[in-house]
Amino acid sequence: MVAINYRVDHVKKNKYSRPGDKLLKVQAGVIHYTANKYANAEDHQVYFDGDDGGAYRYAGAHIFIDKHEAVEIIPLDEVAYHANERKAGPLLPSLKASTSFYPGGNANLLTIGLEMCIEEDGTFHPDTIARTQLVCKRLQKQFPALRDTKNRFVRHYDITGKNCPAPYVASPSAWNAFLAGIDAPVIEAPKVVVPPKPKYNSKYTSKPEERLGTVVLKGTTMNYRTEPDINAPIVKQLPAYHGADPERPVHLYEVKGEWLRLGRGWISNAKGAYAVVKLYDKKEEEEMKKQVIVVNATDDFPAALRLSNRIGAGLVSLFNAKKEQYAKEAIVVGGSATGIKADKVTNLSGDSYFTTAAKVDEYISKL
């Protein structure tokens, strides 16, 4: 028995994750999985917020669900870019649609996208499953057309053929059990009041920026704060395993006294007790400019990060790589290499993020 713990925290309007266009109607609910082992619902809200909408990529979903809460990040009457990769149109004819403001929008014009967060082992936590079923019930009350559960809740896979949500593509019986759970009587636990959480400082965006070096943390749970101040709000706690592998260091962007900025948050490294810092020298900086890794989609990010940690190259979105040149060589992880600005383009993209990951691992093995 879980509480739904549903909250609304809409990202700001931007052309990448929340264009503000209206749905034609709600025809179905689409179940996805995040494929991101280290991010919860709130982390995804933070990622898709801001003018860049998540690294300038056209992607998103309406609701993200983890083992603690469900977060609505896009209004349920608006379009989200979550289920329309197939150029030939949806595999389900009922989800074919087009408008003047979104030609060929298809399923994105008719559906609500639900993203289920996964655990470190790639599975769904039982509370995530139960909470997602409660969210589906909530949607059925709000949108009567969704009450035909078996025909109105579909997998991303059913629309485009993408392996998403992977656990429910691999096991149709598990998917059928999930659907049956939506229709089963549920006694919801009392709502847990979740206090508002501190936000990341908006001035630290996900836009490409210069890195000062790398950091290996010493296996201690760390408070990740909004500012370099012991009294600043704690956005989240970094688990002990985060950044503790010397082969997978964390990128360092700024240093202020004992404080280190890792992305959009700060950690304390008083007396060097919590982290080993390695600053780049000029030669290393020049080496970094030789290569850049171009990432197409969230699903490709884990493979791109493995490659980044191996060769020390920075990450840039496919959108930005087509606007300007970041390095002499661009290594493409997912998506089309057409139009990328670079002297040399190495394409490691496959026909799915699984084959892309395999190509990346093969490339790394030959280094």
Automatic annotation (TrEMBL):
User: What protein name does the entry list?
Assistant: N-acetylmuramoyl-L-alanine amidase
Q: Which domain of life is it from?
A: Bacteria
Does the keyword DNA damage feature in the UniProt annotation? no
Please give the InterPro entries that the UniProt record associates with this protein: Amidase/PGRP_sf, Amidase_domain, NAMLAA_amidase_2
- Boundaries of each N-acetylmuramoyl-L-alanine amidase domain copy? 16-168
Stored SUPFAM superfamilies: N-acetylmuramoyl-L-alanine amidase-like (SSF55846)
Recall the GO molecular function terms of this protein's record: N-acetylmuramoyl-L-alanine amidase activity
* Enzyme Commission number(s) of this protein: 3.5.1.28
Reactions this protein catalyses: Hydrolyzes the link between N-acetylmuramoyl residues and L-amino acid residues in certain cell-wall glycopeptides
A GO BP entry is: peptidoglycan catabolic process
CDD domains, per the entry = PGRP
Sections of the chain in a coiled coil? none
